[in-house]
Amino acid sequence: MGSIFARAQGEYRNFTGTVRMFMRLIPILKRPRRTIGDQIADLARRHGDREALIQGQTVLTFADLDARANAYARWAMAQGIVKGDVVALHMGNRPEFMVAWIGLARAGAVVALINTNQVGAGLAHSYRIVAPKAIVLGAEMAHAFATARDQLDPCPPVWIEGGKANGRDLGAALDAMSPALLSAAERPDLTIDDLCLYIYTSGTTGLPKAASISHYRVLAIMNGFSAVMGARKSDRMYVTLPLYHSSGGLLAAGAALTVGGATIIRTQFSASAFWSDIVRHEATMFQYIGELCRFLLNAPESNHERAHKIRLCCGNGLRPDIWEDFQRRFALPRIIEFYGATEGNVVLVNHDGKVGSVGRIPFWARPLFHTEVIRFDMDSGEPVRGPDGRCQICDPDEVGEVIGEVRRGTTAPTSRFDGYADKRATSSKVLRDVFAKDDTWFRTGDLMRRDAAGYFYFIDRIGDTFRWKGENVSTTEVAGAMSAYPGVAHVIVYGVAVPGHDGRAGMAAIVSDSSGVDLAGMPDFLAARLPAYARPRFVRVRPEMDITSTFKQRKFNLVADGFDPTKGGDPVYFSNTDGGEFRQMTRQHCDDIGSGKIKL
């Protein structure tokens, strides 16, 4: 009886969640001249005295947010910024960040949200690919900007918010601007099809790409996920993720903001302060991503971790091996896992909390989402096409690439794809003549399987799957197995080239928890969980993991160092048989493997 009730509840949540989302998205398409700036103005009129943005002792009401955004808009127009001009926003996590981009977008600017962790050539690249007419720089970012300034030729005007460090004083300039609502004569002619933001995503070369985010996509992300969460004006969303990323700055911040609720902004994630913050601010929702959940689980127990008012959390990347432990330890009533890319058009939501699933499209909803899983050739790196030249839909539980049909119109509110600043990058993500002549689909670059009930399960990123001994190895599957081994706190799995061998051998970089990790029992442990070809041949033990600000693991340097024990400064261990013990490598071992004296 209990399972029948749970299934009925799951179906109800899927239905109501999907309906709520579409009821919020379709009106956006029917009002093409209403942008996020207009929505904030409406919220200020209805909820002016309610708290909108909070950080420490700083509290901005909706009226404060709206007025300050108007000042930003007038300042931009006074600098000669017109519709379509790019303004780069390089600022840390604070309420001013949200105010700035909303205000600049009101002026018609396309706001490039700069990654605050970048320096030097990488930072200069992010500026160059969008060619900003002006830079709004938080004083806290002045040192980082200085590492790239000489590489910008010409360097656009730099305005400093919060100080005058080698730049113009933006604070004083804003104070001189009227905070009143923009008049009809002042307002640029904007529609939801116009660009609003550039948000940077990972590039295949290691350099970021600037994803084009239209006003429609901004509204869709902020309002759509607010609907998925069933957010209400009494909600208080705790945001610890970077605001320059869509997860923190649009999805999380927008969830409560768009219904008159409060957004609590943390400067940066802290596992030790997470629950005390949530209790102090009486947060009712938070968003997670990637390794954040694992960091919280690995942190010492806190008196606050079950004393909260959280009613749900929403995010992506919660791995099946820790899902139930995470929910149980922190007494979380509901977890909503989702899948989606900043620039993509594939949206999957796990409304009913099925462990391990990134989302579900029931049979009745398939005509609404235009999402398929197609057969993929690991060797060629391309979709499989039949004799008719068309792609082939996977059978239930068959692994393939997830794609989304590119559509426009009120009947397909989740199906838009606006591309990148780089047109070549845009074309590489588009697949044509998929099921019919001239149809267009967005390639996610992700491998998944879809079961008979419509649940999707993430398998791996294309490129993160490698071949060894003629078999495809999923780094995600291997990492999931290894992370369950006693003492392992974090793990990254990747393939490394070995002289004299086809494909790539599996290698793992691990970080131990406070108890340490003993590799002696690992071969037997993995033998019970992984096929022989998938078990790593090499293990690198690291003091800490190199991750991005959104908790994604960096593999570039690890792959480059390979299994050479003289690189990276970490001990490296190897096993030259399917279930053999791990032995610490020396330079001689490395040479013997390279010459074929030691065979894997």
Automatic annotation (TrEMBL):
Query: AMP-dependent synthetase/ligase domain location, by residue?
Result: 44-396
Name the Enzyme Commission number(s) assigned to this protein. Answer: 6.2.1.3
Write down the PROSITE patterns for this protein, in alphabetical order.
AMP_BINDING (PS00455)
Keyword Transmembrane helix belongs to the record:
yes
Say if the entry is tagged with keyword Cell cycle: no
Q: A Pfam family this protein belongs to?
A: AMP-binding_C
Single GO cellular component term? peroxisomal membrane
Task: Cite the AMP-binding enzyme C-terminal domain residue spans from the record.
Answer: 478-552
Q: Which UniProt keywords apply?
A: ATP-binding, Cell membrane, Ligase, Lipid transport, Membrane, Nucleotide-binding, Peroxisome, Transmembrane, Transmembrane helix, Transport
Gene3D superfamilies referenced in this protein's UniProt entry, alphabetically: 3.30.300.30, N-terminal domain of ligase-like
Q: What is its main location?
A: membrane
Q: How does it sit in the membrane?
A: Multi-pass membrane protein
The alphabetized list of GO BP terms reads: long-chain fatty acid import into cell
SUPFAM superfamilies associated with the record: Acetyl-CoA synthetase-like
Q: What is the uppermost EC class here? A: ligase
Q: Which InterPro entries match?
A: AMP-bd_C, AMP-bd_C_sf, AMP-binding_CS, AMP-dep_synth/lig_dom, ANL_N_sf
**An example Gene Ontology molecular-function term:** ATP binding
Query: Record's family?
Result: Belongs to the ATP-dependent AMP-binding enzyme family.
Record-linked PANTHER family: FATTY ACID TRANSPORT PROTEIN 3, ISOFORM A (PTHR43107:SF15), LONG-CHAIN FATTY ACID TRANSPORT PROTEIN (PTHR43107)
- The protein's name is Long-chain-fatty-acid--CoA ligase
| Record organism | hydrothermal vent metagenome
Per the UniProt record, the lineage of the source organism begins with:
unclassified sequences, metagenomes, ecological metagenomes
